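This is your field. Have a critical look at both lines of this record:
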Amino acid sequence: MPPSSKLLARAAGDPAVRTVRVTISPTNTASRALALPYGFVLVGEQEDDEDGPELVYELPADQLRA
């Protein structure tokens, strides 16, 4: 099981987790390619002090438990 799948499985198993969020640089196509197949949806943008602009994606944890 890939590490990303393990993290999502852990989130799905924790009833306190309601949303899983990832932030990805707009130029990081590899990270987007890993996240989007899980169903993450673009919800906004933010500016990180160290990394610069980031796209914010979220996935409701309920979708992981279905």
Summary: The domain at 3-65 is CATH 3.40.630.30 (Aminopeptidase). The chain has a mean pLDDT of 94. The longest helix spans residues 3-12. The chain has one domain: 3-65.
